[in-house]
Design brief:
mainly alpha; 6 helices; about 0% strand; flat
Amino acid sequence: MSSKTKCWLWMLLVILSETSATSTLKMFDNSEGMTKTLLLALIVVLYCICLAYATWSGTGILMVSTLGILFYGQHPDTAAIIGMVIIASGIIIMNLFSKMGSEEAEETPVTNLDKKIAN
């Protein structure tokens, strides 16, 4: 299994952990604990922090909102629906097109400038 696949599996575990903890807060009136924080820390070590946190938090928001609709009878208004569509679009765009955290992105403009100055 590739390291990228492992990262995605850990990301899925973090998202499911956060979603289940957050969605049951209303049911049990309890705190979330440290599980999702520790899992996120592991992902940050294995994956780019910017993409990991954006995907984790954005997907968590979408899943908790959906669970609120399904299980608690909450009804989002137009602004909430537009916001959720923007969040979903942002997650997709960042993960498909962003080079943050990749080897290609490791070479920053400052590094390029240093090379020009050295020549």
